[in-house]
Amino acid sequence: MRTRSLLACLSLVAASFAAVAADAAAALPTSFQWRSSNALIGPKSDATHNIRAVKDPSVVHHNGRYHVFASSTDNNGAYSMVYLNFTDFSQAGSARHHYLDQTAIGPGYKTAPHVFYFAPQRLWYLVFQTGQNAAYATTRDISDPKSWSAPKNFYANGMPQIVKDNIGNGHWVDFWVVCDNARCHLFSSDDNGQLYRSETSMASFPNGMGNTVIAMRDPDKFKLFEAANVYKISGRGEYLLIVEAIGSDGRRYFRSWTGPAITGPWKALADTEANPFARAGNTTFSGTPWTKDISHGELIRNGVDQTMTISECGLRYLYQGKDPAANDPYNLLPWRLGLLTQTNSTC
């Protein structure tokens, strides 16, 4: 009996060490390597939409399907939003496009969507920018594009004063919600070197958004430009922050940091042009690269809820890229969507 007990104890100790070792091995690397798909999702025009670009994707995997929301621009440079779903990325190109200006969300400038399920209310939220405010719509059925509610604003008094004081000639863009157990945080950028964070309580969400602070800043606005994502890393008590930058070559790429909480403090992970989170230079393409920009997108999450939880294993990132030769005005650039798959996962 004593021998059996000793063996059982040794087995438990060995299992504990193995778990610790596995957890240590599963940490995010300090440099990243990716493989890119070809362009998977491009414009699909219809009788009322003459589409030039699809960009700024948000994606969740729910009930066996990928649900993708994205910005679209038409041949006049006007913005809208589009929704599609499919079971596998090999089907993405053939998926039907549903234009959300045909829903209660309505026409006009609405773009840069971010979708998630707010579990306490059993509601899906679609967050987006309107040029004047951060807005949201809700539904109980993510698969029914007609079911979205009319938009409401997050900020009762419009742009917070701290943003007005620092935005300069920039633009207030790219709203992102992430919650911990007590509070929900709303991140935004200003194309002028500041990343902002506002907050409200879980019980009050989506109301009461305030206490806006500068979460991060850089004197070189191009190094901290826009398209910030904040994720909880599953099982690690750690968060990942990525922000889009514009490199010295004019191409878009992502920098990254980690921190113990949504509020930071943020420690550099892969945050330089030489060692980026994701850039054309650390991405392998099949044949001639279809893009030299790795721009605005989202990691594919473990779940769908407000915690924005990801696994550190085998990251995948749905992103926007474009023909390297394109030199159109920004609102007419021919963006398409592709998928990055991490090739140097530590687990």
Topology:
Elements: H1 2-25, E1 34-36, E2 51-62, E3 65-74, E4 79-86, E5 98-99, E6 111-118, E7 123-129, E8 134-139, E9 152-153, H2 161-166, E10 173-179, E11 183-189, E12 194-201, E13 210-217, E14 226-233, E15 238-246, E16 252-259, E17 267-268, E18 283-284, E19 295-299, E20 309-310, E21 316-321, E22 336-342
Parallel strand pairs: 1-18, 14-20
Antiparallel strand pairs: 1-22, 2-3, 3-4, 4-5, 6-7, 7-8, 8-9, 10-11, 11-12, 12-13, 14-15, 15-16, 16-17, 19-21, 21-22
Describe the structure in your own words.
By secondary structure, the chain is mostly beta strands. It has helices spanning 2-25, 161-166, and strands at 34-36, 51-62, 65-74, 79-86, 98-99, 111-118, 123-129, 134-139, 152-153, 173-179, 183-189, 194-201, 210-217, 226-233, 238-246, 252-259, 267-268, 283-284, 295-299, 309-310, 316-321, 336-342. The longest helix has 24 residues, at 2-25. It is globular. The strands form five sheets. A five-stranded mixed β-sheet has the order 18-1-22-21-19, with no helix packed on it. It has a five-stranded mixed β-sheet with strand order 17-16-15-14-20, with no helix packed on it. It has two helices and 22 strands.
